[in-house]
Amino acid sequence: MLAGLLLGARAAAAPAIQDLDDPPLPEAPKPAAPPASPPPRAPAAPAPAPGASPLPPAPVAPAPAPAPAPPPEPLGPVPRPTLPGPAAAPAPPLAAGLPLAAAPPPAAGASPPQLDDFARRTKVGAYGVGQVFVDGGSNVTAKLPLAVLSVEHRPADWLRFGAAVQVEDGTAGMQQALVEVSPFHQFGLRVGLLVVPIGLGNLSPEPTSYLTVDRPLTDQIIIPSIWRELGVGIFGELVPGLSYQGALVSGLDGTGLSA
Fold this sequence. Notes:
Number of helices: 4
Order of helices and strands: HHEEEEEHHEE
Strand order of the largest sheet: 1-2-3-4-5-6-7
Number of strands: 7
Largest sheet: 7 strands, antiparallel
Distance between the termini: 179 Å
Helix content: 10-25%
Shape: elongated
């Protein structure tokens, strides 16, 4: 029985041994890939004929200029400043012999330059004091204690003409009429009907410079205000913030003074 098993095992292993001894089958050859075709070449330019001049190169179109960036949007109530755009190309020079274009006529309604300069150098002003009183019985009383109209003109920076007319308590009169010459900041000369430079009420007669609501009693009782006399005066500014002025004027009428 053991011999039969051994014979069967040998018989079963025999085909496997025969299979191992057989040579392997050759693999089928793979088809070779076709060679890559070269890229097409541009046709060569024809050779120039003998004796002919070479052709100039074809012009190349310039690249378009980039569009300018849009201006930034303004933010807040005040717009921000924007950079100026590209400068315009300069105008070509005029050919020799061509007449220049005539200046355009002034716009309709525009004033001549001489009148503009006169208006720039002329000042017209006015000031005054108005009072309204209402008593317990609802009675209203209005008064105009002071009203002044002034005119000033400067033909040059160093020359000034000034005049002022005032109405005080119903009486009209000339407040001042003078000519000022100031060739230097440190020295100037004025001649005519001058406001005497004594007291704050005379130096600054405008109601907005009063230290009180009404004209101070000092300028009403002790120092005449507005005090003006015929005479000659000097003025100037030695340094910034330090100025001076003085005048030589006619005297007071002693008959109108009381002790």
